[in-house]
Design brief:
Elements lengths: L2 H10 L4 E6 L5 E5 L6 E5 L7 E2 L7 E6 L5 E5 L8 E5 L6 E2 L8 E6 L5 E10 L2 E8 L5 E5 L5 E6 L5 E9 L2 E8 L6 E2 L9 E6 L6 E5 L7 E5 L6 E4 L5 E6 L5 E8 L2 E8 L5 E2 L12 E3 L6 E7 L2 E8 L7 E4 L11 E6 L5 E7 L10 E7 L13 H8 L3 E5 L9 H4 L7 H16 L4 E11 L1 H12 L6 E5 L5 H7 L5 H8 L6 H6 L13 E6 L7 H14 L3 E6 L9 H19 L3
Parallel strand pairs: 31-32, 31-33, 33-34, 34-35, 35-36
Antiparallel strand pairs: 1-2, 2-3, 3-4, 5-6, 6-7, 7-8, 9-10, 10-11, 11-12, 13-14, 14-15, 15-16, 17-18, 18-19, 19-20, 21-22, 22-23, 23-24, 25-26, 26-27, 27-28, 29-30, 30-32
Protein name: Acyl-peptide hydrolase
Keywords: Acetylation, Hydrolase
InterPro entries: 6-blade_b-propeller_TolB-like, AB_hydrolase_fold, Pept_S9_AS, Peptidase_S9_cat, Peptidase_S9A
Length: about 600
Amino acid sequence: MTDANLLLEQLLSIPAATLPAFAGDGRLYALHDAGGSAQVWEWPADGGPPRQRTAHRDACAFVTGLPDGGAIFGRDAAGDERVQLYRLPPEGEARALTADPGTIHGWGAVAPGGDRIAFTSNARHPAHTDAWVLELATGEARCVAEVEGPHELLAWRPDGQAVILGTAPRTFESNLYLVPLDGTARTELTPHAGDARHMNPRWKQDGSGVWLLCDQGRDFLGVAFLRPGEAPRWLFTPEADVEKLEVSPDQSTLAVVVNEGGYSCLRFLDAETGTERPGPAHPRGVITKVSWAPDGGSVAFDLAGFAFPSGLHRARPDAARSEAVHEAAGLPPLRGWDTIAFPSHDGRDLPGFLALPQGERPPAGWPVLVWVHGGPAMQALPNWRPDLQTILSMGIAVLVPNVRGSTGYGVAYAELDDREKRLDSVADLASAHRWLSARSDADGGRIGIMGQSYGGWMVLAATTEYPELWACGVDFYGIARWKTFFERTGPWRIGHRAAEYGDPVQDAELLERLSPLNRADRIRCPMLVAQGLTDPRVPPQESEQITEVLRGRGVPVEYLTFPDEGHGFTKRDNRRRVYAAVTAFLGRHLLGR
């Protein structure tokens, strides 16, 4: 076994804990992947050792605590995203709340009294996610609103007689509606002009309004208080996106997470005025969830970084530093990322991260892998990546750009790649190549590119639009042709994706121009393609099409498939296989091994 494989095996064996959620008796639940996939674990309120509460091969999607000390969690089958809901009692085994393997059940919220839950279901029609309420004592479920298109149920009104329904017709528009459970008409809570996002609503106990994240008239998401039907009253408006918002049990304090150049910063605000309170310092990294303890004295949050997997931390609003609840042990020294910017073809400075290998650089400079995030309305974050750390250890530098269209840098930046401007973001990858080639520590003749999902499309687009630049490409479940993608992607996704990429009928000519399959005769470099066969988002045909064309032209291509994975590789043994294939592929084509 090579040194790279040994390091990869070591890094993959280090477990991560994510998505913490307190229950009403103070115990903390989270997802932990010590057994090979993310399962529900419990950290007792008395500080005792954690214990595993579920044991499945397929990963759990989420967990949330209940007032009685139990929990609700969701799990699909082999990555197909048809999530089923389960109730986990404080002691004993879980029982299924839903049992329809063909239906997607989207998690919503626990009712104020803890006796009911709200969720969405597309049982009526695969394209429409209706609003449902389930009685936990009896298991009886009923549809409370039929809706058109995908929706989320985000919160209960404090009296338990209505829920908030969230819609997102486009990437940067989301609206909130109040849905009474008595069958009367729903009303819009967020009337506004133009596109704006209204997210993460949290009711005030007296029912007068909600705290929420909003960007009405702004380039970034801020914190506001909204009385139904009125304009938001701003409380906290940094020149950066506020991405998380949770209200303390006594409703005096808001815990928020601010995205500062990709790094998460936990802050505490006065709930009435928005005044920032002194808060604890915490390690630099990425936070995906925050949960208040039932006594209101602290929050739990997860935190991952480029050099360490996600662990659990606890922060008290007036403490100097956060405390670790659960951190990975046995980590070897690993590289971090430097925040960088590089010039684009039209003079913009584009943000990103760069990591160089340790040791003496080769005379011609390090070979480089450019890793492109998916989305496109997403952001590459300084997150835990065992594969990229292994690639660095091999003597390959890693550049992770946030090209135009990425989130985290304002709405205007994120809209720079919409529809007919799509190829401008691909040109940004050529700009990244040009910037790297001009550096003395990078070898412009040995630059590869890798991405997943939409990032896989970016890889295919880059190798067709700029075929002379790339030494090799790695495509994880990328879109090869937009027409076939729209014909086979999950029906619940078509409207939202069409708003971002273009309408499959009205914009058919544009989408054909943006389809790498139609220009695959330009690809020169060796390719590695990997695909989960249950993927409901980017169906396997996309990978099969590009692989078939490349093989027919004699372009070296490797194709890996995973029968028990969907849109991503969630199981440790599957990650081991695909990451080992990637490192071997890059070793051959960037290092000549």
